């Protein structure tokens, strides 16, 4: 609050002092009343305007983190209600939300601290979408990921938010936010975790920026054309890169059909780019099929199909694209290239596709599905920085799949999320991981 001289004001990050104030009471419930009492004491008859302003900033932050005990709540509410400034009114509302939604796990995020320091109690957060658009959404200290997802889905006019998730991209990782977590808690935890992992012994503490994405995560109950907004913003743009990387088993005829649709999505009825079609093949044809025939043969086939679709809108081309790949057993998959050594009948480098049908093991060259393990048959799984392990069938007599991969955390998270959703839909409380 500025009442005590500080030697290190310059260069200090916004939440360095608030961490010192809020970390102990978040760990020890008895200290929470003490924090409220100290702030109220310093806000009473404080004749220093700057000190008082900072005191209200602290009160605003604390009311979004935790509530006082039942014994003290009435006194805190009385104090806040007796003050005539706008922040006191905001604090009452924040405290009511905290009582409803529960206590945070981590101290305020830097974004929250900087917001109140700049005299704004509304925090707008930019969210990016797969179609390269973005939009700002209001996020509160008490906003959980599920509420955030619902808010975005409503604003975008999606028919359902089931299967959608927030993802935080930080450094070289993209991590899904668990729907029950407070949004700012998760981001705070993630940054702290990566900072500790990357910290140099004597160097400066690295600063990390992050981006928030909203994407389809679990591809269940999805029929192309049923939810146009979801198809146009998410499904098409998320499925296109997987096709072009050559992860699906795709015939030449299907590749030609899809390439004509991809071109139409990009350019509509504008035919001027067709002369450069051969140079664009990488953006139109799956990587594993480009050499299946000559560039001129590809061009002839794509031109013919494009002309046959004359009059189709760019939006309808996206839907038609989805309708073709929807019929494939690998539609809506998250793909992982892993190295396995447990089963000599499988190739050492294996493509794993996790989708609504379960965990699919795919031959990386032929794209044939070698095995599909439904979620009901998977009894155990674990992951680390370099591996993903899974047990199929009985824990004692079941078979194991041991994979080397740096994306084990993503496989683990997807498997957990699909199984949790499956159990929820069976009207059973989702069980914890074994």
TrEMBL record:
Show where the MyTH4 domain sits: 1-117
List UniProt keywords, sorted A-Z: Actin-binding, ATP-binding, Cytoplasm, Motor protein, Nucleotide-binding, Repeat
Stretches assigned to the FERM domain: 123-426
What PROSITE patterns does its record include? FERM_3, MYTH4
GO molecular function annotations of the record: actin binding; ATP binding
Q: Where in the cell is it found?
A: Cytoplasm
Q: Which GO terms describe its cellular component?
A: cytoplasm; cytoskeleton
**SUPFAM superfamilies listed in its UniProt record:** PH domain-like (SSF50729), Second domain of FERM (SSF47031), Ubiquitin-like (SSF54236)
Q: What is its main location?
A: cytoplasm
Among Pfam families, the record links this protein to:
IRS, MyTH4, RA_2
Q: What family name appears in the similarity comment?
A: Belongs to the TRAFAC class myosin-kinesin ATPase superfamily. Myosin family.
Protein name according to UniProt: Myosin-VIIa
**Species name for this entry?**
Dreissena polymorpha
């Amino acid at each position: 609050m500025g009442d005590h001289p500080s030697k290190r004001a310059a260069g200090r990050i916004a939440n360095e002092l608030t961490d010192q104030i809020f970390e102990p009471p978040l760990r020890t419930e008895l200290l929470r009343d003490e924090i409220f009492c100290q702030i109220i004491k310093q806000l009473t008859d404080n004749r220093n305007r700057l000190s008082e302003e900072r005191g209200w900033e602290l009160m605003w932050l604390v009311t979004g983190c935790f509530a006082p005990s039942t014994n003290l709540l009435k006194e805190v509410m009385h104090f806040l209600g007796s003050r005539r400034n706008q922040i006191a009114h905001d604090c009452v509302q924040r405290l009511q939300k905290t009582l409803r939604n529960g206590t945070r796990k981590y101290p305020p995020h830097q974004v929250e601290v900087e917001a109140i320091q700049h005299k704004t109690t509304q925090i707008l957060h930019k969210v990016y979408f797969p179609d390269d658009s973005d939009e700002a959404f209001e996020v509160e200290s008490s906003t959980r990921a599920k509420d955030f997802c619902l808010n975005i889905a409503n604003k975008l006019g999606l028919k359902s938010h089931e299967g959608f998730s927030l993802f935080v991209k930080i450094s070289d990782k993209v991590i899904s936010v668990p729907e029950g977590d407070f949004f700012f808690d998760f981001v705070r935890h993630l940054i702290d975790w990566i900072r500790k992992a990357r910290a140099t012994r004597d160097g400066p503490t690295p600063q990390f920026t992050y981006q928030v994405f909203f994407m389809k995560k679990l591809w269940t109950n999805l029929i192309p054309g049923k939810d146009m907004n979801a198809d146009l913003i998410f499904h098409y743009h998320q499925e296109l890169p997987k096709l072009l990387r050559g992860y699906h088993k795709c015939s030449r005829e299907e590749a030609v059909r899809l390439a004509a649709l991809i071109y139409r999505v990009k350019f509509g009825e504008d035919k001027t780019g067709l002369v450069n079609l051969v140079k664009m093949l990488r953006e139109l044809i799956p990587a594993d099929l480009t050499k299946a025939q000559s560039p001129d043969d590809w061009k002839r086939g794509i031109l013919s199909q494009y002309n046959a679709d004359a009059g189709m809108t760019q939006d309808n081309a996206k839907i038609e694209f989805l309708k073709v790949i929807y019929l494939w057993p690998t539609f809506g998959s998250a793909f992982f290239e892993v190295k396995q050594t447990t089963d000599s009948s499988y190739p050492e480098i294996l493509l794993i596709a996790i989708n609504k049908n379960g965990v699919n093991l795919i031959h990386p060259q032929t794209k044939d599905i070698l095995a599909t393990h439904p979620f009901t048959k998977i009894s155990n799984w674990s992951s680390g920085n370099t591996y993903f392990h899974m047990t199929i069938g009985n824990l004692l007599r079941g078979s194991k799949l041991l994979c080397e991969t740096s994306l084990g955390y993503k496989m683990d998270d997807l498997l957990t999320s699909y199984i949790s959703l499956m159990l929820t839909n069976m009207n059973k409380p989702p069980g914890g991981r074994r």
